[in-house]
Structure formats: C-alpha cells, structure tokens
Amino acid sequence: MSKSILPAHILHCVPTILCFLIAVPASYSDVDERYALCSRQFNCGKLSLDIGYPFWGDILRPQYCGRRGFYLNCYGNPSRSPTIDMENESFQVLGIDGGRQTMTITPVGLNLLGGYCPSVEWPETIINHTLFSYSETVRNLSIFFNCSGGFTSVGKNNFSCPSEDGVINGFYTIDDARGSLLENRSSSS
Fold first, then answer.
1. Where is the signal peptide (predicted)?
2. DSSP letters along the chain, please?
3. What predicted TM-score, i.e. pTM, was given to this entire model?
4. Which structural domain range is residue 94 located in?
5. At CB < 8 A and 24+ separation, what contacts does 50-54 make?
6. Is the peptide bond before 107 cis (omega within 30 degrees of 0)?
7. Domain assignment present for 65
C-alpha cells in the first residue's frame, strides 16, 4: 500500500479548488490613460522638473494630477521659468527637489539670485501655512533694500546690488530681528 504525501481531506478539496479557479474569470487591471499623464516630466523654459503630486500644470500635467494651490504656470513661453501663485502674489520657481521636499522660489521681478534688485516696492509676503508645512529649522527671512530715512543695518547681513543709478544697498534679517529693527526706526523718527 502506498502512502499519499497529502492527507485525504486535502485531496478531496483539490477538485473543488480547480473548478473554482477555472470558473471564476481572471480580473485584469487596465491603466487609466488620464493618470498616465501624471507621470510625465514638467518642462518649462530651462527648467525640467521630475515632479509628482501635488504639483500640476498646463497640458502635460492636468489638474487631476495635483492639488489646488500647486499649479505651475509656464505661460506657453519656453524661455521662462514656471511660476506659482500664493496669496495673490506670483513667484518664479527656480527649482523643486522632490527628494528633499524643498522648493526654491523668488517673487516675480525680484531676482536677488540673478544679481539685481528691482526698483519697485514689494509687499510683505506670507506663505500659506495650510499648503506648506515647515520643519523646525525654517526661519523667516526679511529683505530690506533701497530704504530711506536712515533705516540701515550694521553687521554681516548687508548686501549691495548694481543698478542704473549706481548701487542699491540692503540688508536682511532672520526671525524676530525685523520687529526690533522696525521698533528702533519708529522710535528714532
């Protein structure tokens, strides 16, 4: 008498399992063509971004690929960098690093990184905290330039920018230093 490797009660289940596998049709998952667009790279001007959710923009990355507030606009102009609108102000996107979850932006028209300063006044800019979350190491940076009335800073945070009229001097403060500078200015006026 030969011994079976499998117990008898399991052998009785094999025909049932085979019938079930044959009778139930296989299910296939198809790729939704709409979402295939979401994996495309965002190209605008000299900037080619391998970005994903929550960013979207133009035809290559439709709105359903991202989240409201993260629209990147290229204006159909291949020589421009994309912009993003936040709190009724437009910012030029200089870079996005998905791995580090950082975005480098500058107000449109204000390009301190490019070596010049604008001749217009800029309003205080506050970034929407519901769209972005910040780590403990993030600090508020306030930039002052072309100021009148003796509003200057002494220290390492000074900078100068070339202009048509010569040189524009400025300085920046980090965190609460801005508040104390403004108080000093108003008390000396």
1. 1-29
2. -PPPSS-HHHHHHHHHHHHHHHHSPPP--PPPHHHHGGGSPEEETTEEE---TT-BBTTTB-GGGS-TT-B-B-TT-TTSPPEEEETTEEEEEEEEETTTTEEEEEETT--GGGT---SS--------TTT----TT---EEEEES--SS----STTEEEEEETTEEEEEEEEETTHHHHHHHHHHHH-
3. 0.58
4. 32-112
5. 50/98, 51/96, 51/98, 52/98
6. no
7. yes
Distance in angstroms (rounded) separating the CA atoms of residues 162 and 108:
19
Give the mean pLDDT of 85-94. 83
In a domain, 62, yes or no: yes
* Cα–Cα dist 161/168, whole Å: 5
pLDDT per position as a tens digit, 129-160 = 677 777 777 777 777 776 666 666 666 788 77
How far from 10 is each of 3, 5, 7, 23, 53, CA to CA, in Å? Answer: 14, 10, 6, 20, 49
Span 1-12, pLDDT tens digits: 556 566 666 767
Q: Yes or no: say if 170 and 159 are a contact pair by the CB < 8 Å rule.
A: yes
177: in domain: no
Residue 174 belongs to some domain of the structure: no
